[in-house]
Write a structure and sequence with these properties.
The chain is mainly α. The protein has helices at residues 2-16, 28-37, 41-46, 95-99, 104-123, 142-145, and strands at residues 51-52, 63-64. It folds into two domains: 2-64, no CATH class; 66-135, no CATH class.
Length: 146
């Protein structure tokens, strides 16, 4: 999901800035390095927030990139309003419970439903397409435990 939002942002940026159209010809890593090199230190720091202010001088618009999709769509950028065709999304059980089912097909279906709902909310301009999933690492290295 995140990839689509980034591509949309880059396409918008390139369309508005002919000077940087050459970036489209670079490999993705080189493109990213070139673009980040244009940022000032303050702009880089501002871009680390989930509510990025954008970089007006480079034509990069403000962007809210945080939403959570661990067991359904959520996040500060998601609009669950009372108006419109729908006002909620499916909330699935916590991942530890779903994992206890040991059912790959079930988890795949849950992910499919979350992705469809995320796209529907995005199409209605009620959320972005960047969804993150918090990770808890159950296994620690011996160096950390000692």
């Amino acid at each position: 999901m995140r990839q689509f939002a980034i591509h949309r942002l880059v396409r918008t940026f390139l369309a508005q800035n002919c000077l940087f159209a050459k970036l489209a010809l670079l490999a993705p890593l080189d493109r990213a390095r070139s673009l980040v090199a244009l940022y000032t230190l303050e702009e880089k720091i501002n871009a680390t927030s989930s509510a990025s202010q954008g970089v007006e001088r480079l034509g990069i618009p403000p962007y809210q990139w945080w939403s959570e999709g661990l067991h359904g769509i959520a996040g500060p950028g998601t609009n669950f309003s009372d108006a419109g065709e729908y006002s909620y999304s499916t909330s699935f059980p916590q991942p530890i419970l779903m994992g206890a089912a040991f059912d790959d097909a079930l988890i795949t279906e849950v992910a499919r439903v979350i992705s469809i709902e995320a796209r529907a909310f995005n199409n209605a301009n009620r959320t972005g397409l960047d969804f993150w999933t918090p990770v808890c690492l159950p296994v620690f290295s011996l160096a950390v435990m000692c």
